[in-house]
Amino acid sequence: MVLDSAQITVQLLGPLSASLESRAITLNAAKQREVLALLALNTGRVVTVSTLGEELWGDRPPRSAATTLQTYIFHLRNSLAVDVPRERIASEFLRTRHNGYQLECRTDVEEFRRLARAGREAAERGDPQAVSELLGSALDLWRGPALADVRQGRVLETETASLEETRLGVLERRIQADLALHRHADILGELTMLVARHSMNENFWGLLMTALYRAGHTARALDAFQRLRTMLGDELGIDPSPRMQRLHQAILSGDPAGDMDAYLTQDRGPW
User: Fold this and answer.
1) DSSP-assigned beta bridge partners for residue 23
2) Of 102, 22, 136, which Cα lies nearest the Cα of 8?
3) 11 forms bridges with which residues in the sheet?
């Protein structure tokens, strides 16, 4: 059976998987999976031979690098040819371009970024309910660390590190929206886990302090600040940022509508 409107889907936000419509694509070879991951992360764009070589071999490519890469692409096309002739894979899905290769596919990374953009637009409209729902849906796409079962050279390591930073930013904004919706008690467990996992992330500490205070746990909110200050002093020899100190003072003065709201609404970077 040949599918007229076939589409390749690649899942990257967790273990790597691929399918052609509803049929799973088997990818066993480690280098094949690595090449697919890099091409899928750049779907619709040409990935140059030099970039693929840097990912696969770093600064020490073998003499046969060009031929070896062509072999990887050949076998990858064969693996992708589920119910579709290999020639069609080469002409429509995994094309050879000048000095590189271009994969056309649908990915969960694209959907994650689409939902994140929609969430940002909802935030600009002042709609915290939509922000929480959209960003929650974006985060639900993650099934674990990106490319959890794929060998990563330095190109993929950079790509996955960037994705993780974006994920954390989206998570912060979703929690911020939940606080605006008065879900303080509901997110305390999540925030406690996050500060344990990301102990150097002041934003998570600030959100935890805010949630604790608004849930009626002022003493615990102040204790969280003291724990942060002790940790930063012991580990880095620094004090909490001025922003965190202002939040601390807002809690001390019982001022939830002043500096605390300013803390929640200020821009803390791209997402």
Assistant:
1) 20
2) 22
3) 17
Q: What share of the chain is helix, strand, coil (3-state, %, to 5)?
A: 60, 10, 30
CA-CA distance, 177 to 173, in Å (whole number)?
Answer: 6
The tokens for 228 are: 């942060």
Window from 92-106, 168-182, 256-270 with minimum mean pLDDT: 256-270
Angle of helix 154-180 versus helix 108-124 axis, rounded to 10: 40
CA atoms within 13 A on the CB side of 99: 3
- d(Cα 256, Cα 250) in Å, to the nearest integer? 7
pLDDT, tens digit, 9 for 90 and up, residues 115-125: 999 999 999 99
| Predicted TM-score (pTM) of this structure | 0.91
- What secondary structure letter does DSSP report for 239? P
- Domains contained in the chain, CATH given: 8-106 (1.10.10.10), 183-271 (1.25.40.10)
d(C-alpha 133, C-alpha 131), whole Å: 6
pLDDT in the model for residue 2 = 46
Q: 128-143: string of b/e by CB count within 10 Å (b at 16+)?
A: bebbbbbbbbbbebbe
Provide the H-helix boundaries in 125-153: 128-140
Q: How far apart are CA 27 and CA 203, in angstroms?
A: 39
* Contact predicate 58/105, CB 8 Å: no
At 22, list the tokens.
């509803």
